[in-house]
Predict the structure.
Amino acid sequence: MGHDLQQLLPENITQALCRTLINSLWQGLIMAVLTGLIMLLTRKSGAAKRYLWLVGALCLFTLWFLFTLITALNSQPDTNAVAHGGDAGGPSDIWELLNYNLLFIQKHAGIIVLIWLLVVCARSFKMLFGFYAVERLKRSKISRPGSEWEQKVNALAQTMGIKRAIGLLESAIVKVPVAIGYLKPLILIPVGMVNALDPQEVEAILLHELAHIHRRDYLVNLLQSFVETIFFFNPAVLWLSSLIRSEREHCCDDVAVSHTKNKVRYISALIHFEEYSLSAPGYALALTGKSGGMLQRLERMAANRNRSLNKLELAGLALLMLLSTLLIAARPGPAIISVATKTARAPMSPAIRKFTHDRELAARKRFLEQKEAAGTATKAEALELLRYTGATISPELRKYYQEKERATARRLRAEEAARHRTHSKDSIP
């Protein structure tokens, strides 16, 4: 399976991509610590400021990943890197074991990247299907709520500074109001909502959806979908993305409350929709946000207090920082050095020496097999390949290769003589 990928991607690209994906795990750990600090230090700040900090952390991680990938593509991989350790059984064995695992990952980089690509393709198809479902909502089982509410929505949009025309339709599919689109924004509301609720409550709910449009949350939501597709294996990225979604709903709640000037009525409007289960597609922006977030939003507005880290998140971050400290303290010297430096300072462990030797032999064998298949292998290379395969070289086989080599030499001398005679004839006036 790894060889099939090498036919699609060059080996240097496969190795660089694999190393970058592995590096994104410890980069994600650093980002998780940074995210935890943001959540703790901004407990008394507004939701908009927390949202900007969290989105900035996600963008910083994405740029860091791209920089790491470009650096890996422009550098030669050091497959013989080993951990600098001391005596066997000491603390340095932790680093040596870690580096041994990294070498094992590099050896199977083709398989790892292939599995990653397959999962990314599957999630991309799911995301495209989500886009299709969102577009289908615009045309399936819809009706106009009436010119009065259409005018009301555009009047509210103007008060929020939205220059574009906002569409408003009733849908028999959605259970909660959703905002869809960026170039041509549209708000879908459940059928009968405008008749079932108080007009002021409907207005408060529409203000929440208009806040999504005014803040261009659809673009950030799209960026999150791409990042989650690529880093599906990174728990730190998924955690940060969930925090961004929660703070985005808090920001829109604050905007709606600031326009209605009545927090109690807005909370009442949200409670009316708590009984609905979330059925909106993930690529639309719904009033209730993600499941489990409504109660948190109501508590935040009622107590006027931002969300902080829960006990599980605090314990996870504390454990992460403790493990990082122990690993750094256990490091006896430079974390990673070349084989030449390692040999000069201390002998290489038998396990890593055998792993490196086997890797070099396997690479040499693949090279000889490719030359043998192309018919360009010399006698010495053919004999070397036979030794790698474990075959016994008989005297007859050795004589055959010698005669084949002499025949090749005679053919080359004859071709050279023929070219010389042709050149001599052409040079006669």
User: Anything to note?
Assistant: The beta strands are 82-83, 142-143, 167-171, 178-180, 186-190, 285-286, 336-337. Residues 394-429 form one domain. The CA atoms of residues 222 and 338 lie 42 Å apart. The two ends are 63 Å apart (CA to CA).
